[in-house]
């Protein structure tokens, strides 16, 4: 009997269809690009992506690892106003303000040992971290102008692409006990983001910029976007996030279990079993608070009886028999219907001892000698 942890992947076929379309008509005359000033700036950030795991948290995860990350597209919405012949650009700026000292721009969170770091993927191809600097730093910018022939004269939107990362700042053994749920930035430092209209060329990517205090023309963009506590985590509706304590899991792990060769005479009646064969499934490098559970499914199932593993369907397979596994921690029969079984922790490892044996199910002509191979697929979860 083989037990296999399978990660199933669905594959999609991509079909490319070429379409050639010829349209005869009158070409529209291009309009004139009109330089403008950005006014009436507002922010919206409903485009945040879900958090995704980068590095599992185990007992061996290195300090400084990125545990989870997510992208957030922050929009600066603005209107156009006359520019008086001067080219302008809207500049997206940001920094961590004064307060709690931050090392390398990593802000502490409510979970001691896990910090928040924020980058901007700028349109010039550079990835820039938001740091604790005296002045905000230019992260993104775009020319403020519109096409006079298009219905664009009312306003536009500049997108700044942020990346939030949760960083492990201590050894895993030093993390707090219990569930690790990051829901806010701790301390007094404030994330300050801005959308500011400036004469073109005044702010270079990555340079510090002092936010002007003038208001000419009226409503010119000088908009701050200030985030503290939960708001810094929740950009684009991203928080809170639970960091699961896990173990090192090797996918496609195979544990062969040989139940031996037997004859039909070894099973004199329905329910007769073979001698059990003992084995175990183990995990290593478990985080201190990891509580792994394991579930089993029948590779050739689902079985009619969820406690009996089906034999591989083949013309050479035995008939009238199945395989039973016992959880040696509880001395209960293992089920193949999604039931979860806690594993026993020991040091930085986890283990579930098991045994397996054949069982006779059929009688009379339903019995047939042959190969008796089964496969239980198992999956680990970390609630």
From TrEMBL:
Pfam families: Fimbrial. Residues 241-382 form the Fimbrial-type adhesion domain. Keywords: Fimbrium. Gene3D superfamilies: 2.60.40.3310, Fimbrial-type adhesion domain. SUPFAM superfamilies: Bacterial adhesins. It is found in: Fimbrium. The keyword Ribosomal protein does not apply. InterPro entries: Adhesion_dom_fimbrial (IPR000259), Adhesion_dom_fimbrial_sf (IPR036937), Adhesion_dom_sf (IPR008966), Bact_Fimbrial_Adh_Pro (IPR050263). The keyword Transferase does not apply. Its main location: other. Belongs to the fimbrial protein family. This is Type 1 fimbrial protein. It comes from Pseudomonas paralactis. The lineage of its organism: Bacteria, Pseudomonadati, Pseudomonadota, Gammaproteobacteria, Pseudomonadales.
